[in-house]
Amino acid sequence: SRGGGGASMWRHRPATVVEAIERKWKAIIGTVDSESGCADGRPLSWTNLGKATELVVVAPDDVCFSTDDLISAILQRHRTGSLQCVPSGLSFDPVSSSVPLPQFVDLGTANGNLLIHAHVAHGVPFSQLVGVSAIDERRAEETEAPTLPDSSYRVGLNIDTLGKTLEREPATLPRAHWVWSSCTFYHLVDPVGAIQQVYTLLAEPTKGSLSPSVALLTHVPLAACCVDGLSVTSLNNFWRGHGVKAAVAQMALNPDCCAVLLMRFHGDPDTMPMPFEYTGDVRRTVEGTDSCYMYATVRWSHSTLDEAGSEDECLVGLMEHHLNVRTHPLADRMKAQTHTKQRTCAQQ
User: Fold this and answer.
1) pLDDT means per 10 residues in the chain (348 residues)?
2) Cross-strand pairs, 263
3) In whole angstroms, what is the distance from residue 152 CA to residue 126 CA?
4) Hey, which of 14, 258, 285, 315 would disulfide with 280, CB 3.0 to 4.6 Å?
5) Do the beta carbons of residue 201 and residue 166 sit within 8 Å?
6) Which 3-state string (H, E, C) describes the chain?
């Protein structure tokens, strides 16, 4: 039978979706049997092992920002409550700060390089950094750079079932002020349901706080999940109509996937609505390979206006307005990087 939509559609997954999630998870952790249909009984291979920094480029205007831009903006908001511009690479001083430190969670952290960078370059203590990985991808490097400690690394958590895990064992992950995920959601079976579960991970800001809790999920294959077509404008309008500060944008360098921004302010509900319902089918997009991408399909269950909202309500607009994240046209950023490289070479 079909699963319903609404604020917690993942709680009503059809049996076919639940079974596919279980099979895929077994394939990921290497306990799959020959009946799974994935990887011929072998553990899936992985190539996305995590980056210290990442550039996100969204359509339609090829506007970009980096993870450093995001971290700096979030630290600034939590340190001062101010929207004033800050340089990318702002470092947090836990000794001089009188406000609680923001909690960072990286879903699909792999080798943990992003969190290590947040610690080294931005001064975020490891106590405020948690990475989630299906298997332990940390590697002993022959350098003096710190590795992500066990206290900041959670192995064996399935993001497809994150909501149930948090209900059963609330201490598994801390409620987060910033959730990041890159090159992970296209490995999930139910990316749509997982988005709702990530929202429940966001901490509710204290009363009077200007700082929303934020999740940014990149490389989310929403188009592959929607059997009747994905309309970015309609989805954004649906959330706007329900008073939710969330937005989706097509990724310019990977047009088959989207970036999804979720924000939670004080007083916001614990769940977020979705205008979809499950079809009951699971679509396989790659046959006979180790990748074995399979997605629970959904259809629109709510009619939405397809007219565009204001620029302040798009993904980039929300980030600029509520976080003061610095964004730039991709062409300008590439020119600046080329100029910097040329100047460095000339000095050498």
Assistant:
1) 64 96 86 47 55 91 93 84 46 52 93 94 95 84 70 94 93 93 94 96 87 94 95 92 93 93 93 94 70 88 61 83 88 64 47
2) 214
3) 6
4) 14
5) yes
6) CCCCCECCHHHHCCHHHHHHHHHHHHHHHCCCCCCCCCHHHCCCCCCCCCCCCCEEEECCCCEEEEHHHHHHHHHHHHHHCCCCCCCCCCCCCCCCCCCCCCCEEEECCCCCHHHHHHHHHHCCCHHHEEEEECCCCCCCCCCCCCCCCHHHEEECCCHHHHHHHHHHCHHHCCCECEEEECCCHHHCCCHHHHHHHHHHHECCCCCCCCCCEEEEEEEECHHHHECCCCCHHHHHHHHHHCCCCEEEEEECCEEEEEEEEEEECCCCCCCCCECEEEEEEEEECCCCCCCCCEEEEEEECCCCCCCCCCHHHCHHHHHHHHHCCCCEEHHHHHHHHHHHHHHHHHHC
Q: What is the pLDDT, as a whole number, of residue 39?
A: 46
pTM attached to this predicted model? 0.86
Looking at residue 189, its pLDDT comes to 96
Q: Are 2 and 279 in contact (CB under 8 A)?
A: yes
Output the six-digit token pair for 302. 């709510």
User: What pLDDT is recorded for position 215?
Assistant: 97
| Cα 312-323-65 angle, rounded to 5 deg | 85
